[in-house]
Amino acid sequence: MLGGGMIIGIIAILHVFVSHFGVGGGLFLPVTERKAYRENNPALLEYVKSHSKFFVLVVLVFGAVSGVGIWWSIGLVNPEATATLIHVFVWGWAIEWVFFIVEIAAAFIYYYGWDRLDPQTHLTVGWIYLGAAWASLFVINGILTFMLTPGRWLEMRSFTSAFFNPGMLPSCVVRTAVSVALAGVYALLTAAAVRDVALRSEVVQYAARWLLAGTLFIPPAGLWYISTLPPMAREISMGAAPAVTIFAGLSIFFSALVVAFTYFGPYRHPRYFNLTFAFLLAVLALSTTGVTEWVREAVRKPYIIYNYMYANTLRLEDVNRVRQQGILASARFVRRHAVDPQALVESGRDIFRVQCASCHTVNGYNSIRFAVKGWSKEMIEYQLLHLNELKGFMPPFLGTEAERKALEAWLASLNPQPRVQEPQPPGEKAETQASRPAGESKP
Amino acid sequence: MNPVMPAPVPVPLPAPVWLLQLLLVFTFVLHLVPMNLLAGGSVMLSLSSFLGRRDLRHREFARRASRVVPPVVAFTITFGVAPLLFLQLLYGQLFYTSSVLIAWAWLAVVLLVMLGYYGIYWFGMQHEELGPRAVWVILAAAFLFILVAFIFTQNMSFMLRPQHFYSQYLKGEVGTSLGPLTTASAARLAHFLVAAMAVSGLGVALLSRAWRREAPELAEWARGYGVKWFMAGTGVEILVGLWFLFSLPQEIRGMFLGSDKLSTAILVVAIVLALLALVAAPKSPAASSVAIVGTISLMAVIRHLVRVTYLHPYFDPRTLPVQGQWPVFVLFAVLLVGGLATVGWMVYVFFRPVATRATSE
Predict the structure, then answer these.
(1) Does A160 share its domain with A274?
(2) pTM of the prediction?
(3) B6·A98 Cβ contact <8 A
(4) Which pLDDT tens digit goes with each residue over A15-38?
(5) Distance from CA of B263 to the nearest CA of A (A)
(6) Whole domain around residue A223: which residue ranges?
(7) Do both A335 and A380 map to the same domain?
(8) Hey, what CATH class is B17-318 in?
(9) Three-class SS of residue A305?
């Protein structure tokens, strides 16, 4: 029932929300610790200690395991794209793994080291954590932006052309700013729980400043990032696909709400700030993260690796071959390697599994049964012939004409009472479908 | 019958196969050490938490050891990432297919690990508050980790049998299957788990050294207790190892019984090192550990040879195109050395003040 995309989405959004805190919190901890030493403020130091426990429990466990979880889910949902990324970036990931080791070790030593290390060494460990955490963001960010803006890699096919892609730098600035802002969001959560009123006000206002400072850099960096996007991706988010546009709008709206609430709440009136408010702010920030990441994923459609691989894992370089030989011929896990006129509907179902199931389920998330509900056979045929033109975020149907007919037959069989014709058993339906004159396949 | 499996992706490998295989085995050894300590340690702690309701030594042992486990989980996970990366690079089309066929179980690993990890923190951070209930927390965590080990063993065994992919697919069990439950996969799981018990015993014997100043009696007891686990575990492991060996297909088993001289020699050396570790354990757990890390490393090599031989009729990564990304590889190697040195320095400064404190007392 759950589509693969939804599973990836849930894990990824939660991971992004926590892992950016993993970086921003890595800056927040040593900076605040140093502040406490400089101001000789033992109460603030106690707060930093308790915040570091929260940090370890959230980042080291949830952050680390959910990061692995993204990898798990993309491998299951889109093995072909995952394998491609791993082939291109294995050393990038290996480098990120080194930073990950340093990060984990530093986090533990920072957390367990409060009473064992002298302040200077303890701070140094904090800075090492920050360096490693930010470096792992830097590496993974390059791999992530590659998917949307692969740039010169499409011709050069080298690691550097893939990693230093057009979106890499602006996205890195956006994510760094988001990390700082999220450090503030999480600090507000622990700050709101401080018992001492004076300290609570001080820390709440201080945390709010982090949030506001971080968000200050997001709009310019975000615009810079958007300027590097492929034109079609920009169009999708600005009107071409209503759902994406709505979500893009929500992203801006939620961000504005977070800033307004933070400014008028914890920043201006820290005394009235409490845990409920902090929690609501965190939910709002999570929603912002969620819709923004969703838009970022959505604008990449119809590709999973822009101009290289469609969302259904068909490579652009294979398009002509698939058009000539058919999708079933090269598919592995299908019962038939060519359309069986005796079992047109079943052949169509196989084609759906190979070509459409990366994004659609039959009945659940992004349900195809729902999508074609009420469509006549002619409508289905028209849609399949012009899929990429009618829906800019979808790849064209790729396959032979017989395969398209089979898919049409299966799609028509999903809703037993289509609008324009009498109910028929699927077998018969399939036959009538096959005997109809064929249209031209769009290039 | 020709196996049904996807073609490898048409992007060249970024380094020669031997180097990737070397890194695969090396990083897998890095993963194996904490993984053994975690799987075996959580079982040992469950038992001690249970016995600790009556026995003070077990209770104190569980309390002290509980603090050490969270980093062990962290490093099991972290060190597990790299071998899985190289595995996907070399054998992706096999690994992804078996993973998709057992998708729900495979995806559940993420949740099970997270729950187990939080359980370990709960056990460590709230040990006193939990009191006698601690045993349930650690038992649940141990169960979750063993379940993860089971799912891993299934997937890693299943990916070696591409001839079963299509039949599994035709059964309509995409995603919900656990993969074929064979004697070989059962023996493989047992081989891992018993080894984990033995290695954890040795780990406890080593850990006890850290308690020598603060709790000399407990340290002495824990050392003996750990050595006993190690010796018993290793004894059982030899039997389980034989079971595993004889559960393998004849052709593969034969390699280690003389038909391939190098494979046989590696197995013999691995067993001799384990026997040496057994002899050394009562007097010097440290020396014993060195020998057992040798055994673990050779066992990882053997595991790799078994994999290569299983897959030989279907796929050999040496047939894939290679286009070395050497500058990035060098950067990785330099950063790895630098990163490990940084970790070494942090570990050093972490333990240094304790030594200073202890001598000044």
Answers:
(1) yes
(2) 0.92
(3) no
(4) 999 999 999 999 999 999 999 999
(5) 29
(6) 4-310
(7) yes
(8) mainly alpha
(9) strand
